[in-house]
Amino acid sequence: MSGIEASYRKGRKVVVIGGGIAGSLAAKLLQFDADVTLIDPKEYFEITWASLRSMVEPSFAERTLINHKNYFKNGRVVTSPAVNITESDVVTADGAVVGYDYLVIATGHNDLFPKTRQEKLSQYQTEYEKIKSSESVLIVGGGPSGVELAAEIAVDFPEKKVSLVHKGPRLLEFVGEKAAHKAFDWLASKKVEVILNQSVDLNSASDGNKTYRTSGGETIHADCHFLCVGKPLSSQWLTGTVLKDSLDGKGRVVVDEHLRVKDRKNVFAIGDITNIPEMKQGYIAEMHANVAVKNIKVMMSGGNKKKMSTYKPGSEMAIVSLGRKDSLAQFPFATVIGCLPGLIKSKDLFVGKTRKTRGLDPKRVRD
User: Fold this and answer.
1) In terms of domains, do 106 and 236 share one?
2) Based on the domain organization, do 322 and 310 belong to the same domain?
3) What is the count of structural domains for the chain?
4) Half-sphere exposure of 159 (CA within 13 A, CB side)
5) Tens digit of pLDDT for each residue in 34-81?
6) Using only C-alpha atoms, what is the Rg of the chain?
7) d(CA 11, CA 164)
8) Are residue 290 and residue 270 in the same domain, yes or no?
9) Domain FAD/NAD(P)-binding spans what residues (predicted)?
10) CA distance 243 to 327
């Protein structure tokens, strides 16, 4: 490295922890302006909101699972979970110590992902075979994942008996009541049995006996089941780091209007892990990434605080896909269900658009 290049890199070491929606975009956007290291337990990024389609059409995952190296060619990937943060370094489970001038925390929710893209593709194939070979399917959880999976199965396999059990009083508690009722009616129209205000004892069905008991005393016969309940935030590990005082009572990272972590000038948090009072959604996580990246670039170039971008939560919208043609859309001004909102999301699930923001061919299958 030449002296000029060395001085250019001084003060430009950026570490991004987490390779999900927010972290992958931040690493991609910074790779030619800084010396970037992406730390992630897996080798790939997944367009998570498209995962339910991949369970009924495994080949769909060819475009939704993207190796980090495909969009992040000018940086370093450390494939290991981060376990500690000091004032100057991030330490990973496999013992790597990575120094930083700027740090971006984007660890989202805890989820068990296989390490390689090929393993994840195989997992979708296995889940598809499980659905295909079953006459009846039980889905536990009536949030967006449970509702979208029930819809995908009901549309692609209309002959199968689908039951959805949710412990809450209505589906999709993150959206308004009107939207929840519309989702309930749509599922009912597709012969999905929806049971509210109850939980299921998944251990109540032994191997030979495929009958599950609910907390309300009902029995459900199902050849297989899928658990679609919310995952906890991936922030517990921060309690043993220098950022232990930056968490609120719910384990969310407290950030300022520039998305910097409370009382830190050079540490940012983006995506679901932040304490910003808004819906936790993919398009919002990408907006966070854009703001944090702009601010890191301003700081690296010695710009003052006045030049930094601020993040303001906007008017919220939510789109829940209902199979291949229909969607439920909640806009600030209206709630709509059917094929018109379906045109926005359901056919491609924003996969082409998300690939494009990472500099990839929207339609290319092999990654």
Assistant:
1) yes
2) no
3) 2
4) 5
5) 999 999 999 999 999 999 999 999 999 999 999 999 999 999 999 999
6) 22
7) 52
8) yes
9) 13-281
10) 40
